[in-house]
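Task: sequence design from structure.
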């Protein structure tokens, strides 16, 4: 039933140019469905004082308030990341984020409890989500996160302190960039 309802959505996509490369945000009037980081360029070099930007590259004539809220959040995250936590998040409209499945629960706990500049281990996140033995399932939930950046799966690291894979291992350099971005901007 839920899948059928989602298929009836009229989705629109906004393309943003960010320090990570192109980011595509798709959603409908009910909320954001997905965020994709296309990895079409190397992450921007960070200099300590230089502001970073995230600008709209391509957008439909009309966008929903939820998509617009997502764009504003992403723009704040890159230019003034310490302020992003005070901005309202858009509504989410993706099956992985609905209901009480373990994936949904893990993603919501991560969103609510792991703040800007913090990290959490896969093991600790499994405990926080109510199943301390589900460490591998937490990894699976991170892989299925439809809205990276908004739900900060980049903040989940291994118990040894290593950053662990991001975007199925293809975006490990982006994870390092994001963690450094939050550390540097959180101090300033």
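Answer:
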């Amino acid at each position: 039933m839920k899948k059928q309802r989602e298929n009836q959505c009229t989705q629109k996509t906004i393309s943003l140019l960010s320090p990570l490369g192109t980011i595509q945000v798709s959603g409908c009037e009910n909320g954001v469905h997905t965020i994709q980081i296309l990895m079409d360029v190397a992450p921007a070099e960070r200099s300590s004082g230089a502001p970073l930007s995230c600008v709209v590259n391509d957008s439909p004539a009309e966008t929903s308030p939820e998509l617009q809220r997502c764009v504003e959040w992403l723009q704040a995250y890159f230019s003034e990341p310490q302020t992003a936590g005070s901005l309202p998040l858009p509504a989410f409209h993706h099956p992985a984020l609905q209901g009480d499945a373990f994936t949904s629960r893990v993603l919501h706990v991560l969103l609510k409890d792991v703040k800007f500049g913090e990290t959490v281990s896969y093991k600790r996140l499994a405990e926080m989500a109510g199943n301390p033995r589900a460490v591998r399932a937490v990894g699976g939930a991170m892989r299925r996160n439809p809205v990276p950046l908004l739900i900060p799966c980049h903040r989940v690291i291994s118990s040894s302190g290593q950053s662990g894979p991001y975007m199925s291992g293809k975006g490990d350099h982006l994870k390092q960039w994001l963690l450094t971005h939050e550390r540097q901007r959180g101090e300033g």
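The beta strands are 12-18, 21-28, 31-37, 55-58, 120-121, 156-157.
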